[in-house]
Amino acid sequence: MTPAMTEKPADAQVAKPKSPNPLRQGLIEEKTGDACAIVIFGASGDLTRRKLMPALYNLAVSRSLPGGFAVVGVARREKDHETFRAEMKEAVIQFSRRKPIDPSVWSDFERRISYVAGSFDDPKTYADLKRHLEALDKEHGTAESRLYYLAVPPSEHGTVVGGLREASLVQPHSASKGGGPFTRVVFEKPFGHDLASAQKLNETIATVFDESQVFRIDHYLGKETVQNLLVFRFANSLWEPVWNREHIDHVQITVAEEIGVEGRGKFYEETGITRDIVENHVMQLLCLTAMEPPTSLSADAVRGEKVKVLRALRPMERRTVQENVIRGQYGRGFVRADEVPAYREEPDVAPDSRVETFVAMRVFVDSWRWGGVPFYVRAGKRLSRRVTEIAIQFKKVPHSLFRAPDGGITPNILAMRIQPDEGIALRFISKEPGQQTILREVAMDFRYGAAFGSNTPEAYERLLLDAMRGEATLFTRRDEVEGQWEFIDHVFDAWASEGTVPPPIYPAGTWGPEQSDDLLARDRRRWRKP
Ligand code: BG6
């Protein structure tokens, strides 16, 4: 794969000469955000510490932040600017991908960090924020532009949107035309709890913001390997002719984690893995795999194609959910030789909880391209190993000329490894050297680390930068998020109608309940061991 690919030829510039990696020659110049103040609601939360502040610091290191820039944390707890800065420094030291932190970059970045205390349902919070932002416009040149980041639970999304509106902290979209000040808003996932709540939230948002001002995050879309799916499919002529039901037997999408719920028992009790990971990350991977080529890379063209996939998903009916969806919950077990507790033993989890921490589904995209091709998807916590991948399994050869082991010649598999060990492998059959014709499966393996070096930006860096630039391609559109929920709602309806059946327990450190293997075995297939 050539590293000289650009997503927009017009943007293409020669790489910085100081770039140490020759393979980066020809990559597009780093982008810079538009002048603005970023306001993070939920500034005392984990996301701010682990992801947002380290991402902003890394954008400062790569000189991608605009000259006019400030970041304001908003949360309930009283604290002064200095305390907040010290907390953020700790967080960046701990979680930044670049270590150690650069003192000169940090001291400039730190001057731009400040804090406003207040409750999200108190009009005073917004009045204080407004005064503070006006002062920042003068001090840091933030040009009256605002990027509000709602790192708060979905139940508080509407409250913050209302507070912003009442305090006149939102400029209409028209104000930004011709380079005027902009207001944009980023919603952290989960976006709603089901279709009805997502629709209601969308309606509330639409009374305050134009859709072009709204950025719904799915951080998977910011991952390099996920962005590469479009490049891989549509910048190479090899795949399109075989990317269909004629050649593809089935598709497997796996999002497996070793971690458990990590202190988020309360959240998981309300969410479960279907809402936490399948409704968003898995659906996005499925859409990017199944979508038709968009006419351009514009936000509307790409998202329009993804919405068509969502509309083509065969809806699950109560009867078919039982056949096509398997859930599970982790019990005690061993992950990497460490004994780990059962889900029901985690803090804030009910001892008889029925929440699923594993789900596997057989899904069909009823379209001309995919008619009859099953997409098997699974996501689970406390599985054997952390791996996210999309595996395309091609059809078997129609007739075998060679003596092959039982089951015939294994089919070609194209495995796109999203993480870790990012890369793409094509497995095919080869002759083992020797006097006899012995067949052996081998792989052509592309590895990001070897080809491009390993210091790739984190998803949140790309997404924050895009939001600062008003580029919405990697964010979820209103109809997209509603399409995702519509599909998932059917599954929940069926589970609700089943009444009180608890999900099967699988030992931590395995690949989920055995029913998940049966799901594929019924179709004479099996899960890949990634
Ligand atoms: C988040 C989920 O969206 O994604 C977490 O809430 C999950 O439960 C995480 O662990 C996985 O993200 P990543 O980037 O580590 O694969």
Structure described in brief:
By secondary structure, the protein is an alpha/beta fold. Helix content is 35%, strand content 20%. The strands form two sheets. Strands 7, 8, 9, 10, 11, 12, 13, 14, 15 and 16 form a ten-stranded mixed beta sheet that branches. The chain has a six-stranded parallel beta sheet with strand order 3-2-1-4-5-6.
Can you give a write-up of this model?
By secondary structure, this protein is of the alpha/beta class. The chain is 35% helix and 20% strand. The protein contains 14 helices and 16 strands. It has helices spanning 46-61, 81-95, 103-111, 123-140, 154-166, 195-208, 224-234, 265-290, 299-312, 318-324, 448-452, 459-469, 478-497, 514-521; strands at 36-41, 69-75, 113-117, 146-150, 183-187, 214-216, 248-256, 325-335, 338-340, 358-364, 374-380, 387-394, 413-419, 423-432, 438-447, 505-508. The strands form two sheets. Strands 7, 8, 9, 10, 11, 12, 13, 14, 15 and 16 form a ten-stranded mixed sheet that branches. The chain has a six-stranded parallel sheet with strand order 3-2-1-4-5-6. α1 packs across α2, α5 runs parallel beside α6 and α8 packs across α9 (299-312). The radius of gyration is 24 Å and the shape is globular. The relative contact order is 0.13. The chain binds 6-O-phosphono-beta-D-glucopyranose. Residues 189, 257, 276-277 line the site of 6-O-phosphono-beta-D-glucopyranose.
